[in-house]
Design a protein that fits this description.
Number of strands: 3
Radius of gyration: 17 Å
Strand order of the largest sheet: 1-2-3
Structural class: mainly alpha
Number of domains: 1
Mean pLDDT: 90
Distance between the termini: 31 Å
Shape: globular
């Protein structure tokens, strides 16, 4: 099932979330404009290749994607969860938070397979951090999910149920993918998702939230 909206109201415009989405789309369109050989070189230069690790690639890799579905799904998850985290942190701190979660996610994958020559790309590690933060701050928000079983249907669930289920899938899939990681077959970077999610849960408690968010929270409590 795929999240399509949430019940948590935002009180500010998600300018940075929109900017991040636009940047990802523009970079992907640039990737598509390249011939296949140049595109592969571009991914190897700006993706995070553990065997030739460099700090800049921790940032550049999170703006590359491997296909339309990879891009669309990541941007959808960012749109559903990101605006609320931007709302409580403010635009500048939210951007820093996003980049730190993405870097932490890449380091998580690097820690599992430091000798891998497979480039890691995508925003999913940073977005996993946003999701981890969302679970801490808005566990009882309602997430509208769309799924299909013969026909399309929608289902509304508490955020903590959706996010814990998602994290559990990443953890189990990560354990199952260890053999592929060791043989460098590529695939989904599950340990980046795990690392990003955990980083988001930790970092959101270290970042000071906006005064108006704390006031709203205190009034609700």
């Amino acid at each position: 099932m795929i999240p399509i909206s949430d019940s948590q109201q935002s009180y500010s415009k998600p300018y940075i979330t929109i900017l991040i989405i636009a940047a990802n789309v523009l970079v992907f369109l640039f990737q598509l404009s390249l011939d296949p050989y140049t595109r592969n070189d571009f991914v190897f230069v700006f993706g995070m290749v553990p065997e030739r690790f460099n700090w800049i690639s921790l940032l550049t890799s999170m703006f590359l994607h491997g296909g339309w579905m990879h891009l669309i799904m990541n941007m959808l998850f960012l749109w559903v969860y990101g605006d609320n985290i931007e709302d409580i942190l403010g635009h500048g701190k939210y951007l820093l938070f996003y980049l730190l979660c993405g870097a932490s996610a890449a380091l998580g994958q690097y820690g599992v397979a430091p000798d891998s020559r497979v480039p890691m790309i995508g925003a999913s590690g940073a977005i996993a951090g946003i999701m981890g933060a969302y679970m801490i701050k808005f566990p009882h928000s309602r997430i509208v999910m769309v799924g299909w079983f013969i026909i399309l249907f929608t289902l509304e669930l508490p955020a903590y149920v959706v996010l814990l289920y998602w994290f559990g899938l990443q953890f189990l899939s990560g354990i199952g993918s260890i053999a592929d990681v060791s043989t460098q077959k590529g695939g989904t970077a599950f340990f980046a998702h795990i690392g990003g999610f955990v980083a988001g849960m930790i970092l959101i408690n270290l970042f000071k939230t906006r005064d108006r968010y704390r006031l709203r929270r205190d009034l609700l409590w």
